[in-house]
Amino acid sequence: MITLNVNGVRHEIQAPDDTPLLYVLRNDLQLIGPQFGCGLAQCGACSVLAEGKEVRSCVMPVAAFANQEITTLEGLPARWAKQKGLSAEEAKSTLHPVQQAWIDQQTPHCGFCQNGMMIKATELLESNPNPTVAQIKEAFTTSGPSPHLCRCGTYKAILEAVQHAATIVAQGR
Amino acid sequence: MATTSPAHANVTGPTLSRREFIRTGGVLVVGFSFIGAKALKANPGRAAAMKNTLDPTLPSSWIEIHPDNTLLIRTGKSDFGQSTTFTAYRQIVADELSVPFEAITTVVAGSTDSTPDGSGAFDFLGQGTPNIRKAAAYTYQALLDLASERLGVPKAQLSVKDGVVSGGGKTISYGDLVKDQQLKLTIPVRGDLTSIMGLMIEGNPPMKPVSQYTVIGKSFKNSVISSKVAAKETWATDVRLPGMVHARMVHPKTLGSTLVSAGPLDKTKFPNSQVIVKGNLVGVVAPTEWEAIQAAEQVAGGTKWTEWKGLPGNAKLHDYLRQEADWASTPVAPGYANKGDAAAALAAAQKKLSATYQFSYMKHAPIGPTMAVADVKSDGTVHIYTHNQNPQALRGEIAMMLRTTPDHVIVHVYPGPGHYGRSNGGNAGAEDEAVLLSQALGKPVRVHWTRADDMKWSTQSPAAFSDVELAVDEKGKLVAYQIDHHMPAMQDDRPIGAVLAGLPTMAAPQPKGDFIASTINRISDPWVYAQTPNVMERGHGTFQVGQQASPLAVGLRDHSMRTPGQFQQNYPRELAINEAAALAGADAIQFRIDHAREERVIGVLKAVREASGWETRPSPRRDAVATGSTAVRGRGVSLMLRSRTYWACVCEIAVTPATGAIVVEKYTIAVDPGIVVNPMQLKRQVEGGAMMGVSHALFEEATFDESGITTSDWISYPIPTMSDLPEIKVVLLNNPQVGTYGGGSEAANALAAPAIASALHDATGKVLRRLPLKPAYVQALLRT
User: Fold this and answer.
1) Cβ contact (<8 Å) for A102 and B720?
2) In a shared domain, residues A89 and A40
3) Is the ipTM of this complex over 0.95?
4) So what's the pLDDT on residue B616?
5) Does the N-terminal or the C-terminal CB of chain A have fewer CB atoms within 10 Å?
């Protein structure tokens, strides 16, 4: 049995050790933010944060994440609230700046890839709160196992949303 | 607000809760006929009597007005990321009914038992008057009639603001008006609910004049984005039913293989799995997804199929199309703008161009593979939970496959990855397979295709080629233009699982098929250079490649994809017009303006010229160079008229001759749709379409060998990354006097290819007349 720590909650996992994390999150823990895009770590739709680093949950076995701190799209508001020291009550009505920026900029079209885009943006802004355009492009293209792919072509809206999220972070809400 | 599917399968819990849809208490309901009795007798809506189907003649099947003054609207058109149903449709209804945008709190879209009209998720604002607008206009008149009666004030003296009717010093809100009241209204409809076009509302109710719009023209946010980014939306991928099992398919080895024997399942490794075989359809099911995946891989390894080599292979595709394909069995489609005598003018001319332009197969390539959950009940009722662009048509196809009637089939629609037209005729791939497996097991089954299934077993956008002959006179005028478009059938809506299982489907495309399932290649790119004296356009059609040679009648199945057919016709035309301008020694934008007559064509060209900072001069540039390892730059233009929307773009590129690599540096695009309904959403749609256009132009080519598709993942079928993002500049031309809304999510993806190819010509002096403009192809061209 594996113990997973996801979005601040501990879970005892019954699934076989070699089960890719994605299926455990979606089917056992009902965390549906990460999506199945390719099962090959080629697109980024399934991304989650493990110890603050973006990983592809579609290929990584659940056993590799024992005792690691995992954050999914669902956990982004609480992650932000914790970083900002917000009260539990405030946290409930708060979105992560990245999510807020994605709404403000009306970024998604179909939205299927945007989980991974928001996870990547969160990872980026936590290490570099004021990225340049080149650094944003680099983050979404070469920093991970593969580029983050969007078939609807929303890259401009993603780039603008990352910049907008950076201003929200800078304002500290 | 509540969004897409009010049908909310509980994502993860043990029960499935659904709400009742047809309410009467306190809600606008039917009375006697308001306007449509005659029309109804002549063309009764066929769906009216069907079980599990809304009565489209009831106003509440389209719009509910609640006592608290909130509204709910219903549309058969499901959102694929265009945002239209959640933004433009609300804006249109709000203006027709004179209510605030925010009063429309619920949009019910897609699901077959809770929406009235069917049809596909395309051309949302097409024909200028979508059904929902007419439904609102009829409802508005009925509300005024009711208010006139209640207030004792003549209808002509009433006015409405924010859902409150005023007249004769008295006021009443819509909510109070409809409370315990019946509206005297029957919505007149005609059509076939499960056909590709669905039902259409008849008649011409008075519409709100454009000058009185207060909601249309403003930017409103798409409410469904908020729930998606917060992980609060139920996607099709999230649906889990009690007792549901997971399935993976074992598809045939080739596009013409039949099953010899299904591989034995290793029960020691996969004790809970099961193999299901029906004809050539093989599926593996298991209680957990991971077991289903592994068991299917194990079974696939031991499954034996017959061999088949009936395809030309992509290297020989265009030779095959030119020399071997049967173009004679299908009638030639004439152009709509043919005039003069192009052949005689060509024979007499001095400056001529004769060229062939080639277009590759492309995949819709949704970012998530297709999937569906099906639940075939013991009484024969079929529930399908999926992401679909034409759920009513899917309903008809599933009923045909099961030899039953559509009223036994309910399609529940949820958001999913965009697939750009693939299911606009009813199916995307996994739905029928899930139904057959569920029927065999007596349990709900979730079929999720792998990435490779989605690349190899889905339909594709057809390849094409066009032969152009044109001539310019000594004054630089285009005097003759002749184009012969060749394309295999574009729309094969046969569900693949039904084909593999040997069950009933519609016929494969044939010369005598109906409008959709025909091999006829219609002219779909409106001719816009009206001052050309001699024009001849012809469309030549044929069967799908491999269709007739495959024992499964499968072959390379085609399906319309974003800007379908018109992309295959506009690319050769616009690249040829650039070549004609070069032949005439003219500037490519001015050349177009000089040959156009329509004001909106000229307007969009002038707008893109100004916004891009275009330098007026002929192409290629004087210092064009086709060698060396230093990047050289060029620019090109293209133009399209689609769905009453005028588009032009300018692409500026850098190409490195030694490597053939093209980088699109700047992409300026102007669009005149008539009335801009929602500027913010239109701008985002155009940007996304532009980026997809770069992808089509530079990267996309589905490859295949003699047996099947060899493109299988994002390495073998690359699409752009953020590093390929050019500077994109969108110019929206609001043209309210036109009085109609145009389209926004198509055309932008097709504009880039001819503009980029023209930019390559501008930079290097050489023309590559095939897509995509891959480095290897560009490099080979520049070496010649």
Assistant:
1) no
2) no
3) yes
4) 98
5) N
